[in-house]
Each structure stands twice: as C-alpha cells, then as structure tokens.
Design a protein that fits this description.
The protein has 424 residues and is an alpha/beta fold. It has 16 helices and 15 strands. 49% of the residues are buried.
Length: 424
Amino acid sequence: MIDPRTIEEVDPAMAELIRRDAERQNTSIHLIASENFVSKAVLQATGSVFTNKYAEGYPGRRYYEGCEIIDEMERLAQKRILELLGGVHANVQPHSGAQANMAVYFSLLDIGDTVLGMRLDQGGHLTHGSPVNFSGQYYNFVAYGVDPGTERIDMDEVRKLALEHRPKIVLAGYSAYPRHLEYDKFREIADEIGAVFMVDAAHYIGLVAGKAYPNPVEHADVVTFTTHKALRGARGGAVITNNEEMGLNIQKGLFPAAQGGSLYNQIAGKAVCFHEAAQPAFQAYSQQVIDNAQAMAARFIENGVRLVSGGTDNHMMLLDLRSVDEELTGKVAAKMLDRIGITLNFNTIPFDPRPPFRASGLRIGTPSVTTQGMKEAEMVQVADLVTEALRNHGEERVLAATESRIRELAKQFPPYPEGFVGHI
Ligand SMILES: Cc1ncc(COP(=O)(O)O)c(C=O)c1O
C-alpha cells in the first residue's frame, strides 16, 4: 500500500530542508550562469510516477516489459528536441552533461586517442580533458586557448594544434566564455584533418532553442548539451547527431557502455522543457537573457570593472577582480556576495596568476534573474550592488546596507511565490 501522506507528514526533516531551499531561492539574487528555475510543469513531470519504471535500452528495444508508454514518452522527447534544434538523431537518456560527453568519447574514440578542446582555465569544461576527470585520464587531450590581447578563442592556434596533433575530435564549447563560437572555422579545421567536429553546447543550448544564439547543430557532426541550464528544464543531458549511423553508435556509447537504466522522470521533465522552449515566449525569454547580460556588462564597464574580452554575446560575463582590488580573490568575493544575498561563482580568468581555488574572476550569468522577471533596469541595479559590495568588501556597515537593498530587490521577483512547490 502506498503511503498517501505528504512529505511534511512522512519526513518533516526533509520537507524542512526543501522549504528552506525554496526560501533561499526566493530571497536571493541568482547569478550562477549554469542555473535556472524550472516551471511547475517540469517539477511535476520530474516528480511523477515515471520515476518507478526500469527501461534499459532504447524505444522498441528494451530489456524490460511494460515500456510501451515509456517508449512513447521517450520518442516524444526525441521528436521535440529534433524539431527544436534540427539534426537527425537524438539521445535524451544521458543522466548529465558529463555523461553525454562520455557517450561520445566512448563511441568515437579508442583509449589514448587525441582530442582538441578548450583549456579548462580559459573557459573549457572538466570533461574536455582535465587530468582529474575521466576525459583527461583516458584520452590524450590537447588544449587551445584564447588570444591574450582579445581574450577570444585564437582560431590560428586551433588550426596549428589540429595540424600538429591530428585529433580525432575537434571540440568546441565552454563553461566560461562570453562570446560566439566561430563554428565555420572549427568546421573547416576539422574537415582539413578528417576529424569529427563536436560542440558541447551545455551552457547555451537554451539560447539556441530560443533562436538568440547561433545553432551548432547546423555545423557540427555531434552536439552534446545539458537540459537544466539556459534551457530551463529537468536536470540531465542529451546528444544530437547529424548522421544516423553516428547517432546509433553513440547510443551504444551511452547504454550499455556508460549507463544502465535511464531516469525516466527526468526524461519526462526534459520533454516538457523542450515543449516550453518551442513556444514564442521562450524566444522572448532567450533574447531577454542576452539583453540583460549586455545591460549588466555595460554597467560594470561604466563602473570601472574590467570584463574578460570587454563584454558578452551570450548569457554570461567574467569579471576581472583585479580591476576592483588587486588583493581581492574570487573565492573571498564570491563568499562575501553569497552572505549578503547574491549567489554566483568564482572562476579563473584567462592567464590568471592565481590558482583555480582562489581565482581572480567572478562568473555572472543572467538566465535565472531573467526567469525571475528582471529586465535591463534591474540589471543596472544588480551591477551597482555587486560593484558596491566588491569595493567595500571589508566594510561590514556598508555591506549590511547593501544587503538590505539586495533583499528588497529579490523580494520583488521571487521565482516561486507559492513557496514549497515540490509536490503535486
Ligand atoms: C560545457 C559543459 N559541458 C558539460 C557540463 C557537465 O554537465 P553536468 O554537470 O550535467 O555533468 C557542463 C556543466 O557545467 C558544461 O558547462
């Protein structure tokens, strides 16, 4: 017999933790570039009875019975994402962005093969060859970076390294880079050496879905992404390929190579967000995310704060804290801002003299605040509040006053005004 009681009745300790985090989400300003607030519909799908089902394999070829509805649901998710982004084959099963990348590497590479990707300390991701990640341990990653003058990806260096090392995969994509990617140049380089062109669009695929940022599916052989960042969906990953045979191969790289049964409640939540992202309102949202980032970036520059590459084309910017205070590290600044109601993360900046755990940069993103309903005027206020706090980071009296203004602003834009929305 299923216990019909609510979580408050069954497990008050957990209910209280959820309530407290809902309150944290409702009372701060959220600038983590990889986060967002999902809709009630997404929460309902992820909290649904699809969590009960085992379905190893792919639609029509399962190792368990009772999968007819799961098959229909997974096919719906695949169809929706292909309609949204293009491509010929979609895999919506990866538990995460890291596992989407793992599936591609497992299927297209042999252990020790070479991949050309972006340096982690200049904007790449852990799964692009970090020595502490499986990618760097199993494969020979060669890294390109940004030009020290422009702080944009140095495409001459990408080509030079490609010709020298002849990687099997040329990988574009980032976790901390505020500009467009030159897909056509990456494509040309990959073609010149007969490599696969892969894009990891985890961070910005939501902007692509909303038609506000160039679409990698039009250029790459394979595109991986997460569904929970700018795309504003259930936590998870996905892969799109432009070639059926490669898509089927990558399927095997995920199941059985990297995962067992997938998370069907999460896949349902992905399908809901794909549907939401196909609506005109999501296009307006995506453009607003970028407009907000550009308005905030312009204000930081007016305030004398240096931004990596001098601005942004997407949903994020990187602040160079040395332009505020030579002594202030990213770690100290991020902790201080979190304490007074602004949540973000510290980040290395290109050619950072500090180690990654202290860092000289802050990464700021606008997907969450835009979902909360903030527009350019609020972005200017946020930039001013952040600048004021950074400039006065040791002045508790000033920080207390800044915090009350931050909380006041946050109170006007709660993402979940109904509070605890985890249950249906
Ligand atoms: C470019 C990129 N790829 C992959 C990932 C990994 O995603 P996940 O955290 O879901 O494994 C991220 C996450 O931040 C990312 O930014």
